[in-house]
Amino acid sequence: MSNTDSKTDPAASEQGTDDVITDEMAIDTEVTADTAGTIDADRTIIRADDVNVWYNDDQALRDISLEIPENRVTAMIGPSGCGKSTFLRCINRMNDMIDAARVEGDLYLRGKNVYDDDVDPVALRRRVGIVFQEPNPFPKSIYDNVTYGLEVQNMDGDYDEIVERSLKRAALWEEVEDQLDESGLELSGGQQQRLCIARAIAPDPEVLLMDEPASALDPIATSKIEDLIEELAEEYTVVIVTHNMQQAARISDKTAVFLTGGELVEFDDTQTIFENPEHQRVEDYITGKFG
Amino acid sequence: MATERDTPTAAGERVIESFGRVSRTADRVFRALLLVATLLGIVALAILLVYVANDAIRPLTADPAWHLTFFLTLVVPTIAVGGYLYRFDAESFQFGTITVGMLAVSSMFAAGAAMIFVDIVAPVVWFAFVLAFGTAFAGIVTLSRFSHRIPFLARFLASGAFLVGSVLFVPDAVQSLPVYPSDWVMLTASLALPLAVVVGRYVAADTGWRGTVLAAGIGLGVVVLATNIGPLVGITPVPALVMTVMSVVPTGGYVAGRVRRHPELRPGLALAAAVLGGALVGAAAVDALGFAGPQAWVDWQFLTSAHNNTAAEAGLYPAIGGSILLMVTVAAISFPVGVGAAVYLEEYAPNNRLTRTIDVNISNLAGVPSVVYGLLGLGVFTRYLGQPRGTVLVGGATLALLILPIVIISAREALRGVPDEMRQASYGMGATRWQTVRNVVLPEAFPAILTGTILALGRAIGETAPLLMIGAPSVLYALPTDFSSKTGAMPLQVYAWASNYATPEFHNKAVPAGVVVLLVVLLSMNSIAIVLRNKYQRDH
């Protein structure tokens, strides 16, 4: 598969020459120049600058500015309706699908503003994978679910091998290796969610967004997903929205706390947030006084 | 709540002695009225149908012994087996009924198809066009297989060129050959082979290609066998082949596939055996014992002869052929256009004033009287486009316009039924809208779209007014032979018998018989739609 080297040479990574122009996204070359296997501890991959989002006249996010480090797990926590999922969907422009949504401000992925006019959201989404709250495999076979991204992105490569590797990375291979031709809908909820993760990582994106990926699952399935996220952070930048504070504390390196009204109140190392937050409101939220 | 009815006991607890009663009279009256409203139309129509069916089939003209024979051989075993399964094994019961229904309905449509191959489309023409489309398809597949790097537009144009080229040249080339194989060989290659492969895949796709090939081979073997046995019992090869391909093989494949995957459904076959066996044994018995059957007006003669000024000799054959050709035209026009419009409106259209205007107007179009569509067809197709009046093409196009709003509305309903999470998942994987529609939305919505389209076709097959408007002859003495020849239609013929030939003879014989045939066709189409819809709903 040609995309595995995308972190070192993004310009060469695009195989897709379908009806979509995938090379529209110019990538900041300065970032790519100095990488040769080593991972700089806190290099920023995503930077938000005063991002505001409105749904019609309701403001869902207010002046969000933060920097998400590469190859780390960044958690977004906060009470319901605080805008954390909205922010997540800004990163790969899934909000474009909602007619009523309007985004202002700048959001950079490797130095390129994804809201620039010349950015094709489809091309963006090929670099930024997403896993949703409810497991939503396609009504296709397990195999076809995993290869879906490869098919639509017109990627070359040994699909059998990619399927095996993705399912192994998603810790699902051993449970399904004999039933790859069966429908993805026949799996249990936790398996379906891991299938969705395998599907998201198969085309080898740079960033993996997860929107409360374990909230519809039972505790055992949840702990499997959590282990998996920690492993995925070795290769991917993971941004995860969760309403489960323990989960954020367990798996994330950085935590952003959103509070009601779409404000980002505090963003820091997870340890700092949970042990010594700067703001009283964050401490109140984390200790369960509200939210 | 404490009320005066609560009496304090010695211990000071309050005990309720009675809750009292609330009057339900209004409830009951309302319920009864609603029931009447529900049943009014159904009962009225049912009574009419009983009268019509009685006139058309005349069951009372049969020898009572004939009835008794069939009662004993067919009805009793069917009720016994069916009742038992219905009580104790509902799944198998359903399997059995679908098997019988499928055989009956597919035989009917196969008969229609056989009629087309015998009298309208020569097998060589069919063979030539299948070959043309097959060549084009193979070319397009090869192109897309080996050329991810050719830009889309070039690929699209090349595919179009393939298609147009082969349709333009291949059929002529084939038909200009000095000799070609006999009809049944060509039909085996162009009709039986593809269908056998489809059926084989259904039966045994999960066992790999060997199983599929084996199953398809068995299907093909049955077809060849039936084609060669047919002439011995008086059926010429072409109808024998078409009937087997379109009725026996699909039903057999359905049974084999289901039973192989769900052996627990096997008892359902007993029901099918009871019905088919009972009918055969009954027929043999009345034949051997010489019991006379009913002198029905719907009989072989009625189905295979043209109109005649004597009611007893009048038939529906040209009208049936016309209706079939009309339906093929209507489906070919309204399905792609209607589904295309629905996909645009559901998946692409921005939510603005123009879209909303289109929306409202499509709903309005669905309510425009059919005679107005007839006028539209007359104006557009015959006046402006200069088409001759009353041809299959003009009639089909007019009826297609008539049902287009219904197709669009039902297809949109189907598309709306696809969960948004699936679209989100697809877009999240970096799919374009087209890829999402093609790979996720359409496959998911397809059964429901098909259901809606079949129901809409049912509406078209019964239309009379638009066909009269475009000048279709109400009485046709010969089958339309191609798409530009004059067409009749079943409802038109029935209307003609009821108006132009308004004698008691026609009223009591030909009209009921025609109505029964029309309704049987209509109900079989609807039954397909209902089975599809039930299957679709079960899957979700």
In summary, what is this structure?
By secondary structure, chain A is of the alpha/beta class. Chain A is built from eleven helices and ten strands. In chain A, strand 9 and strand 10 (263-269) form a beta hairpin.
What's the total helix number of chain A?
11
Radius of gyration of chain B: 28 Å
Strand-residue proportion of chain B: under 5%
Rg of chain A computed from alpha carbons, rounded to a whole number of angstroms: 19 Å
Percent in strands of chain A: 15-25%
CATH class annotation of the domain at 72-91 and 120-286 in chain A: Alpha Beta
- Tell me the distance between the termini of chain A: 45 Å
Mean pLDDT of chain B: 88
For the largest beta sheet of chain B, what order do the strands appear in spatially? 1-2
Characterize the biggest β-sheet of chain A.
6 strands, mixed
The counted number of beta strands of chain B is 2
CATH fold annotation of the domain at 72-91 and 120-286 in chain A = Rossmann fold
| N-end to C-end Cα span of chain B | 45 Å
Order of the strands making up the biggest sheet of chain A? 6-7-8-3-9-10
Poorly predicted spans of chain B: none
Q: What is the number of strand segments of chain A?
A: 10
Quaternary structure state of the chains depicted: heterodimer
Global outline of chain A? globular
Keywords:
heterodimer; A: 291 residues; alpha/beta; Rossmann fold; 23% strand; disordered N terminus; B: mainly alpha; MetI-like fold; two-stranded antiparallel ribbon; 20 helices; 75% helix; 1% strand; globular
Plain-language structure description:
- The complex is a heterodimer of chains A (291) and B (540).
- With 291 residues, chain A is of the alpha/beta class.
- Chain A has a domain of 187 residues: P-loop containing nucleotide triphosphate hydrolases (Rossmann fold, 3-Layer(aba) Sandwich).
- Helix content of chain A is 32%, strand content 23%.
- Chain A has eleven helices and ten strands.
- In chain A, a hairpin with a 2-residue loop joins strand 4 and strand 5.
- Chain B is an all-alpha fold.
- Chain B has three domains: 37 residues; 236 residues, no CATH class; 228 residues, MetI-like fold (Orthogonal Bundle).
- Helix content of chain B is 75%, strand content 1%.
- Chain B has a two-stranded antiparallel sheet.
- The longest helix of chain B is centred in the first third of the chain and has 33 residues.
- Chain B is globular.
- At the A-B interface, helix 3, helix 4 and helix 7 of A face helix 15 and helix 16 of B.
